[in-house]
Every structure is written in C-alpha cells, then in structure tokens.
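Archive entry. Fields below.
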Amino acid sequence: MRTLRTVRRAVVLAVVGASSLGAQTKVNRGLPLNSDAAIRIYNSVGTVRVVGWNRDSVNVRGVLGKGTTLHMGGGRAGIKMFVEGIDDRNPAPANIEVSVPARSKVWVKTATADIEVTGVTGSLDLYVVGGKISVNGNPADVNAEAIDGSIKVVGSPGWMRAKSASGDVTLDGSSADVTISTVSGKIDADGMGFEKAKFETVTGSIRFAGSFRRGGLVNFDTHSGSVEVGVSSGSPADFDVVSIAGPISNKLTSGRPVAGRYGRGAELTTSSGNGGTRVQIRSFKGPVSLIKID
Amino acid sequence: MTDDTLDEDRIRDLEARVAQLPREIEPPADSWIAIRKGIAEDKRTSRPSVRIWQRPVYLAAAALLLVAGSSVVTAIALGRRAPSDSGVAVASRDASRPQGAPATLAEFTLVENEYISTVNRLSESLESEDMQLAPETIAKLRESLRVIDEAILEARRALAADPANKELVEMLSTSYNHKLDLLRRTTEMGRS
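PREDICTED_STRUCTURE:
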C-alpha cells in the first residue's frame, strides 16, 4: 500500500514537473553585430545578465516564463530586444543571458528583474525600479538608476552616475568622475584616485575609504546620515567641513573643529598630504568623521 | 507628496525679522521675469483642460531643466572656489558664490516657488497617470518622499530662524533637487 502511494506521488510530481517545464520556453538566438553597436534590452521580471565577449555578434540564451515572448531585431549598428508577457500586471519571469561585443553600448531597463553586467568596456545605461544592479569590469561609463533597488559596481568605470532612493549604492574600485546619490540608502565607496566625485544622501550613511587625485573636487552632502571619510596617508586633500547641527570628528589631521560662522553648528578647515584636492563635506545634522586609513 | 508650510510661531518670528529690514531695497534683476512667468503659469494651470506641457514627459523635462539649472549654479559656485588656500576656505565660500544664486531666505523663496510648482505637477502626474508600478514600490516611493519632505521642512525651519545662512540655502536646494529628481525618475520609469 505504501509502495503504491509512493508510486502515485512520483507520477503526480512527474506530471506537474513536466507541465511546468512545458510552460517555459528556452530561447537561444543570435545576430551579427558591429563591435561598437548599440543594444537595448527590456525585461520586466526575472533576470538580465549581460556578458561582454570578443565577437561581432549578439547571442541571447535563457528561459522565458509561461506566455512570454522574446522579440528581437535590428541591424549591425544596433538591435533592440524585449520580453513581452500576456499579462502586463502579473508577468511571468524571464531569465536571459545576453552576450554582446565588449565595446558595445548597452541599455537595459527592468521593473523588478535584476541586472548583472560583466566584461563590457563600452557604455552602460541601466534602469531598474525594484531590482538589483550589479556591474563588474571597467566600462567607459555607467549610468545606473533604481527606485528602491541596490546598485553595486566593482571596477573602474571612466564615468559613473548611480542613483537610488532607498537602495544602497556601492563602488568598489575607482572612477575619475563619479556621482552617487540616494535618499535613505547607504553609500559605500572604496577605491583610489578619485578626482571629481560627489556623494550625496538625505538620511543614508556615507562611507568613503580611499585616496584623491591632486587637483580634484570631491563633495559629500548629507542631511542626517553619517559621513565617514577615510583617507590614506599622503592623499592630497583640503577639507572644508560644515555641519549645521551635527558633530565633526577629526582623526586624520591635527585640525580641530570650530564653532560655525552663523552662530551654530561647527566647521573644520584642514589639509592632508600637502593639499591640492578640494574636499567639501556638508551636513545638516549627520555626524562627520575624518579618519586615517592604511 | 504635499508641500510644507511654516507654522504660526515661525511666521510671527519671520515677520518680526522682516520688520527690522530696510523699507526699500533694489530687487534682484530677474525678479519681474520670474513673477510674470509665475502669474502666467498660474493662469494656465487654473484651466481645467490638460495642456501639452502638462504631460508627464514635458513635466519630467521641466524637472530635469530645473535640476540641471540648479546644478549649473552650484557647479559655477564650486568651480569658482579657490582650489587651495584652506585657511580662507570659509571666506572663499561666500566670495565665490555667483551673483544670481540665492543666498538668503528671501532670495530662495523665488526659486522655491518654481521648485514647489514643478514638484506639484509631477506629483499630480504620478497620481493621475496609469503608472506601471507595484504597490510596494509606490509605498517605498512615498516613504522616500516623506524622508525628503522632513529634510526640507527641517532645513526650512532652520533657515527661517537664520535667514542669512547660505549653507542652509544650499542644503535646502539640494533636498529639493533630490525630490525633483526622484519624481522625475519615477515618472519616466513608471511609464515604460
């Protein structure tokens, strides 16, 4: 009797599994493409993985959810692809991996689908509402925007803009020109040779650890989040710190904060590494600390 | 997605400070242009029909222009600052501020009207349009806007108590830019 039940369960599971597999569609398509072509990808739900490769073509592989269709077309200079579902309000997820020429210009937009990009040296425009964005490599430029998703960049893009509202933004690497902005998400930047940079948040915390390039201009702005700036010894910086109502702590140089010029708050003006890069930190009431890192 | 107003105590305090100001001063050069534009826009917005520039795409573009304009002013201000000479950094903050940039509560009020006007239109657009945003995303968006509104209110109160504090004016501008940018981005993303 027990054996019969087990067999019956196995049959039921096999049928359910088969029908669920049958509801999905595997996709594997390719098109020739110029090495610096423009590629636009739209997938609402699921995942989008973009991989740069050394071929003059694009290839899409993946699994599409029930009722979804992949549309794809264009010429050698550029292609567009998007996943379309039957029910826009409740779309089935599609998980796709798109191999693109490494130097191409890639644009991806999703709702909740996570975006992961690896090995692209061209430009990236990435937009999610609630998914995560992850970039690995050294693209020429990155523009990443999320509403409540997180953004993580590991590498050294030449130019970077990353914005999220409640999601965290992380940069592990460097960029000559970077702007990171959040409302309540944390900002974490770890790298060397920052020249033109802006880190701004409303209530999220900002943690910076790295060095500046001489002649640069770096800004940190917060309303109530904490700002921790860790600088390696010898990194050139002229600090100009203003806080309306938050404390300022300096463990980097011998400079001490003084009372604010408007009769409130505190200010600190100090230099490290013989100066040469203007570092302005502005806080309404978030604590600011300068520390030395090795 | 509402705008903040001063409470009565703050208004009385502000009135007392205003009473101490000189009776006549030269208005900023572009005041009348901004006022005329504001009056003309108010007349247009009072009409019930939706005009072409009230469409989300134009509102988003307007927000972008406002943010970009504000950023240009900030960039000019930062760019004109001396790169070194840290001993006079505080003084250079004021000296480097461009003539047209708001530096006091009174001057900022003119710019603030434009911020509020654009924020209101974008907010209305977000609420009225059929946005493809999940309820949880809308909830998080509202929470983010509430966070920014609190920051604006706090900076606004501090500025009312200290109307000549230029740092507060810049902080307030930054908070408004956060709000405009978030509304603009959400409008664009929600209409995919």
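CURATOR_NOTE: The helical segments of chain B are 8-19, 31-45, 56-79, 89-95, 105-128, 135-161, 166-190.
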